[in-house]
């Protein structure tokens, strides 16, 4: 009697184990990012080839084999710098690569033959964070900076802060438009971040 029951018991256990195995439709679901997720959350780190220079950026200019034309300068409110032999040069709104070509073209006009110009950003302009943080103000930008790290630099959130009401105004944006952001948002130089108060 027992010998006849054993195969049946083994078959029942096998079928039960098969039913307990998760199928394709039972895989764990990822949490939704929520309705407030925006394309801004995926902003890329600063690209030195496309980054637009602006007030507060510190730049270095070097011309190959011409040490007298080496310059380090901070872009002022006028958006211009004063450069040897060339006077005031408008740099705001240009990328480092565009500025290289612009300076090379000016130097070719009566000064040098085929000048090799290199422009680098030695320090990016600051970003600003205000609202419900403990130490609002402007802070030095560092490549790879995300919103959560920016908040940490500003001393953390206050007790009244709402993580659902965090916004950025881009330095290059139109009319000061605010865009809602999340903690993984990549901060850019010149950004103004606002953390608003929640209602509890």
Brief synopsis:
With 200 residues, the protein is an alpha+beta fold.
Descriptive overview:
Helix content is about 20%, strand content about 25%. With about 200 residues, the chain is of the alpha+beta class. Among the domains are: about 60-125, 2-Layer Sandwich (wza like fold); about 125-195, Outer membrane lipoprotein wza domain like (Outer membrane lipoprotein wza fold like). The strands form three sheets. It has a five-stranded mixed β-sheet, covered by helices on one side. A three-stranded antiparallel β-sheet has the order 2-1-5, with helices on one face.
Topology (elements, then pairings):
Blueprint: H1 2-20, E1 58-63, E2 71-74, E3 80-83, E4 87-90, H2 96-108, E5 117-123, E6 127-131, E7 137-139, H3 147-153, E8 161-169, E9 178-180, E10 192-197
Parallel strand pairs: 6-10
Antiparallel strand pairs: 1-2, 1-5, 3-4, 6-7, 8-9, 8-10
Task: State the helix count.
Answer: 3
Into which percent range does the helicity of residues fall?
10-25%
Spatial strand order of the main sheet: 7-6-10-8-9
Class inferred from helices and paired strands? alpha+beta
Order of helices and strands: HEEEEHEEEHEEE
- CATH homologous superfamily label of the domain at 126-197: Outer membrane lipoprotein wza domain like
Report the strand count.
10
């Amino acid at each position: 009697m027992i010998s006849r029951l054993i195969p049946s018991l083994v078959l029942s256990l096998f079928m039960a184990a098969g039913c307990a195995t998760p199928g394709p439709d039972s895989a764990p679901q990822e949490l939704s990012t929520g309705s407030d997720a925006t394309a801004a959350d995926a902003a890329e780190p600063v690209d030195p080839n496309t980054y637009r220079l602006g007030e507060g950026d510190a730049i270095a200019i070097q011309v190959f084999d011409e040490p007298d034309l080496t310059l380090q300068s901070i872009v002022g409110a006028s958006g211009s710098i004063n450069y040897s032999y060339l006077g005031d040069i408008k740099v705001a709104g240009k990328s480092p690569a565009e500025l290289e070509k612009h300076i090379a073209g000016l130097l070719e006009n009566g000064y040098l033959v085929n000048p090799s110009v290199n422009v680098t950003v030695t320090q990016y302009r600051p970003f600003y964070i205000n609202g419900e943080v403990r130490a609002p103000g402007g802070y030095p930008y560092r490549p790879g900076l995300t919103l959560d790290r920016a908040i940490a630099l500003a001393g953390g959130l206050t007790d009244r802060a709402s993580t659902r009401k965090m916004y950025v105004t881009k330095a290059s944006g139109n009319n000061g438009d605010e865009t809602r952001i999340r903690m993984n948002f990549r901060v850019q130089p010149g950004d103004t971040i606002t953390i608003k108060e929640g209602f509890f």
